[in-house]
Amino acid sequence: MSDSDANLHELNHQNIWAGFKQLVPISLFVAVFGLAFGLAATQVGLDNPSIIAMSAFVFAGASQFAALELWGAQIAIIPLAMTVFAINARHLLMGATLYPWLCHLPPVKRYGVMLFVTDANWAMSMQAFNRIEPAMGLLFGGGIAIWLFWILGTWLGIYFGSAIQDPVSLGLDMVMGCFLLAMVLGGEKNLRIIIIWIVAAVASLLAYWYLPANSHVVIGALAGGILGAVWMGKSSDG
């Protein structure tokens, strides 16, 4: 392995801290949604320690909100588990895309990093990796930033959540979508990439309209990923 390749997989305090600082701006918006979650969780009757523990150990915003919708005196465990799995299944694909870089880490570090992977730090890290730039610190440090701000937001929501009861009305639900769109537009641009994104978008929309809730996330990712892999394979053979 060359020195430049080794740098891509390097994980130390310096690049972790740099990654942490780089993701702080987007983490501020994550905290707002954490606030909304904390408020919503108190309204369905969860006690404060359980709410904080859910944000700390589950760390999956959309899944946590979905769990609240199914919460009640009698919790349907199987539908709850299936819903959470469907929403988070995209992490299987995200992990697969990161494997070429994570595989050089010891298993403990590898899975430790994956615990903090979110849409935001995954997108930024993949963009950096594709530019042949070190991004392991961004992946891990940025994930820690998002995790801490998510917990902080949850805590604020428990005690001060009434200040922002409906973040959607403020347009805050669009922040992450706009951020990820910016990552896409800032990446490589060619006909192959455009077609792959169009196929993924169409597949996701069709799944959103005709398949069970939340399946569009996985369907869109699979459609784009499979087409990209097949197309890249044919290009390599040629």
What does this 3D model show about the protein?
It contains twelve helices and no strands. It is 76% helix and 0% strand. The model has no long low-confidence stretch (mean pLDDT 80). The protein folds into two domains: 3-187, no CATH class; 188-238, no CATH class. It is globular, with a radius of gyration of 19 Å. The protein has helices spanning 3-8, 13-43, 48-57, 61-69, 77-88, 90-102, 107-114, 119-130, 136-160, 175-185, 191-210, 215-237. It is a multi-pass membrane protein.
Global geometry: globular
Counted up, domains total 2
The largest β sheet comes out as: none
Proportion of helical residues: over 70%
Which residue ranges are poorly predicted, with pLDDT under 50 across at least 5 consecutive positions?
none
By DSSP, the count of extended strands is: 0
Membrane topology: Multi-pass membrane protein
GO biological process, one term: L-valine transmembrane transport
Family: Belongs to the AzlC family.
Subcellular location: Cell membrane
